[in-house]
Amino acid sequence: MTAGTAGATTAEHAPERGGTSRTDDFEELRPLLFSIAYRLLGSVSEAEDAVQETWLRFAATPTRPRSVRAFLSTTVTRIAIDVLRSARVRREAYVGPWFPEPLLADPYEDPERSAELADSVSMAALLLLERLSPAERAVFVLREVFDFGFPEVAAAVGRSEAACRQLAVRARRHMADGRPRFEAPREEREELAARFFGALREGDVTGLRDLLATDASVVGDGGGKTPQLARAVIGGGKVARLLAAFFPRLAHADVTYERTEVNGQEGAVFRDRDGKVLQVMALDVHDGRIHAIRIVLNPDKLGHVGPVADAWAIHHELRRTPRDAD
């Protein structure tokens, strides 16, 4: 039983008309609700809270909604929009670059829309969504990502269908303006990632530079709570030299990494000698090159991945490690 269902009454668990209980109905739709909320908020913890609040409101309704899916998706969208409005104010005061909380596995699956779902949850896409107003963001996510009809979208955001169509046009235009022209096929991304992490492990400057775009960048999100780059490093040569100089030294502090999918793209989780999470890295690959390397170090954004490492302790250990130990 989940935290959201623990307070439900016996009546709320009892089967209703149609032979399923509210709990069954909700759990069936939970992956969809989380996936909507995460794309709207860019936060695993806030998305989980929005889903739990949706359950509480569903459990409190005196009668079964005519469409459970419509009721739940509308509820979670409205909750997420309210949270997003306050979150945008907090993010304006955020220390350094802000990235979404890394998502290692999207619980919602739709084989017919797998490519769209993976693309829409990428770091690059979520950062583009940050440019949209809350209403534009909600309309885009519901319509373009999850293929909701405009009547459902209008009900969820509390606007007319005509207004939602206009919002959708504006949102699509903003998103298209910031997207790369040529996305890399999955096989190409995997092959590039394998070569990248091999070169990273060996400290191979030339190998890294060959994989990076000329305007490639590496950026870290530490939120002012962990050691990080003072600013983004831009330029394939500069990025290659930085990575080749620093990451092999992590091995001397017994830091290891495991390649994994991060927000639907290639990436890795780095762990300390005790297996605790130090950081999560995501690669943005298109046009046959790696264009951006985004590293999430803020411990507040890593707790859902696992116990979090003491980044400052590792930082001090690296400072005591002679550079010629490489």
Automatic annotation (TrEMBL):
Residues 1-23 are annotated as: Disordered. The keyword Transmembrane helix does not apply. GO terms for biological process: DNA-templated transcription initiation. It comes from the Bacteria. Residues 124-175 form the RNA polymerase sigma factor 70 region 4 type domain. Keywords: Sigma factor, Transcription, Transcription regulation. GO terms for molecular function: DNA binding; sigma factor activity. Pfam families: Sigma70_r2 (PF04542), Sigma70_r4_2 (PF08281). The keyword Transcription applies. Residues 26-88 form the RNA polymerase sigma-70 region domain. InterPro entries: ECF_Sigma-70_Domain, NTF2-like_dom_sf, RNA_pol_sigma-70_dom, RNA_pol_sigma-70_ECF, RNA_pol_sigma70_r2, RNA_pol_sigma70_r4_t2, RNA_pol_sigma_r2, RNA_pol_sigma_r3/r4-like. Gene3D superfamilies: 1.10.1740.10, 3.10.450.50, Winged helix-like DNA-binding domain superfamily/Winged helix DNA-binding domain. Residues 1-11 have a biased composition (Low complexity). Belongs to the sigma-70 factor family. ECF subfamily. Interacts transiently with the RNA polymerase catalytic core formed by RpoA, RpoB, RpoC and RpoZ (2 alpha, 1 beta, 1 beta' and 1 omega subunit) to form the RNA polymerase holoenzyme that can initiate transcription. NCBIfam families: PRK09636.1 (NF007214), sigma70-ECF (TIGR02937), SigX4 (TIGR02957). This is RNA polymerase sigma-70 factor.
